[in-house]
Design brief:
Number of domains: 1
Structural class: alpha+beta
Largest sheet: 8 strands, antiparallel, barrel
Order of helices and strands: HHEEEEEEEEHE
Low-confidence stretches: 1-17
CATH superfamily: Calycin beta-barrel core domain
CATH topology: Lipocalin
Strand order of the largest sheet: 1-2-3-4-5-6-7-8
CATH architecture: Beta Barrel
Mean pLDDT: 89
Length: 168
């Protein structure tokens, strides 16, 4: 019976794999500069953030060099929602991470654009279904927003799918 279950799981997850064009990430991320709180400026909508405003993500380094991820938002009904996860770098660049909020399942988190002063960042993943623009402040200069939106097609993303996050 165990062999049948293992075979089914292997077929389920192995048979569903799809190869996507690789994303071009930044060359190197200084994890210590990346840590702290970021505010969501825009995203592609997805089920776990529907109706969210005042969205933030706080990253802290754990003793085992993994990163604790605390996502927070305010739902439409006024309630506060949090999700805590863990991330780890897949190579020494720290530009490609695996993130999990539901272990043992991990998703890709790739840093596509990072301001040299670590004031804003653009994150995506290979399937191009997820995309975030984050900033150290609750607003981002409109010229920077335009630069990012203009670059999205070259990264393989459809800018018309962006949802601009309300931050109070």
């Amino acid at each position: 019976m165990i062999k049948i279950i293992l075979a089914f799981v292997t077929l389920l997850f192995g048979g569903c794999s799809t190869t996507y064009a690789p994303l071009k990430t930044v060359e190197k991320v200084d994890v210590n500069r990346y840590l702290g709180t970021w505010y969501e400026i825009a995203r592609f909508e997805h089920s776990f953030e529907v109706g969210c405003s005042n969205v933030s993500a706080t990253y802290t380094l754990k003793s085992d060099n993994r990163i604790n991820v605390l996502n927070q938002c305010q739902k439409e009904n006024g309630t506060h929602s949090t999700a805590e996860g863990v991330a780890y770098a897949t190579d020494e660049s720290f530009a490609k991470l695996k993130v999990s909020f539901f272990r043992p399942f991990y998703g890709d988190y790739q840093i596509l654009i990072l301001d040299e002063n670590y004031q804003y960042v653009v994150i995506g993943e290979p399937s191009r279904k997820y995309f975030w623009i984050l900033s150290r402040t609750k607003t981002l200069d409109k010229s920077i927003e335009k630069e990012i939106v203009d670059k999205m097609p070259s990264l393989g993303y459809d800018a018309s799918k962006l949802l601009w996050t309300k931050q109070n």
